[in-house]
Amino acid sequence: MPLVHLKSKISPYWLPNGHFQSIYPALFRQINGIKYFREKIVTPDDDFLNLDWSRAENEGPKPLVILSHGLEGDTTRQYITGMVKLLNRHGFDCLAWNFRSCGGEMNQTARFYHSGATEDLDAVVQNAFEKGYSDVRLMGFSLGGNLTLKYLGEQGASIDSRIKGAIVFSVPMDLKACSLSIIEPRNQIYMRRFLNTLKPKVVEKARFFPEKISLDDHQLVRTLYDFDDIYTAKLHGFKGADHYYTECSSKFFVEQIAIPTTIVNAENDPIVPFESLPIDMLRAHPNVTLLATKDGGHCGFRPARLTDEFYWSEKYALQFLTTL
Q1: Coil, helix or strand at residue 132
Q2: Model confidence pLDDT, tens digit, residues 155-199
Q3: Which distant-in-sequence residues (6+ apart) come within 8 Å of 60 by Cβ?
Q4: Exposure string (b/e) for 178-195, b if CB count within 10 Å is 16 or more?
């Protein structure tokens, strides 16, 4: 499938760069009218996942969209709720799920979530199948996009035929490149925000699992790379951050994707360097399209018109999902 460049600008003039385009929606956008029904499912390792359902009002069988959020996000983030509201309005049921330790309730095992934990996404997919859904589409944002692509690649040609396609946004397909990018001075605001919630989670976990989680090196965590090297990797069976990044970066799995998939990344994304994407491989991929937008930032994509209720990304996703 082709590499597609969207030449026209998406964002308004008063959001002049990728930082403003990323930060404005996260701070100021509010979505009303979403009523989730929460379901708690048990994982094979006796932990749990909190699933938030929002169903369309029309009768009869409906397609289901499973939405995976980003690093330290949850199902209440505006990029999730805005998408859910538009999709519900057009006849799609939505299942937005919270990664372990996200969504307001700490999970009960020593492990957390991570960028490659596709076993949890599979548990959510299987739960949807058990409820009778025969038309499922996947969607992911940032870390959730990497997770979604890795899952599709792992499934390859043997993927369940009930999964019809996927669309992902602002995807860090090269985890190491993005981890190093977020260390840069211009990106400190994002890194501090992530660490401000990740580090306290480790402290809380260490109280319950002192034999598995040590706080001896907690003061050494100054970057996201440090956190992944000291905690994420060791808690999830990796030798260190570099090993974790190699094993979980979706760029090493996307070549095996066998269903229609669209990746949307902005060229001015401050967190995901555009040059870190496997552009040459994607250009020749028969099933995957990379849509490169000139602007939009990281999970931003706010349209220029103030009267638009829904963002460009939401309208584009609806268009893509409707064609499947």
Answers
A1: coil
A2: 999 999 999 999 999 999 999 999 999 999 999 999 999 999 999
A3: none
A4: bbbbbeeeebeebbeebb
